[in-house]
Amino acid sequence: MTTGQLFDQAIAVAKQQGFEVRFEHLGGSGTGYCRVGERRWLVVDVAQPMEEQLEQLAAAIASEPIPNGVRIGDDLRQMLDADA
């Protein structure tokens, strides 16, 4: 699986977990996630290298339960297991 495909899968899983995903140019300062009240936000820094974005996406996904029925490929599962 390519990095781009893995990135797309991670975004899809995060959305299924209920994250509100935004893509912002933050000058490379970093992708991050947080909870504000009942809302979960995931802000992807598009100036950051995709590999770093993906590492932070995996951390965000690992921080929340994955809903039943959400399919996760083997490559993404390995990343999530490494973050656990």
UniProtKB/TrEMBL annotation:
Organism superkingdom: Bacteria
Name of the featured protein: Uncharacterized protein
Taxonomic source organism: Aeoliella straminimaris
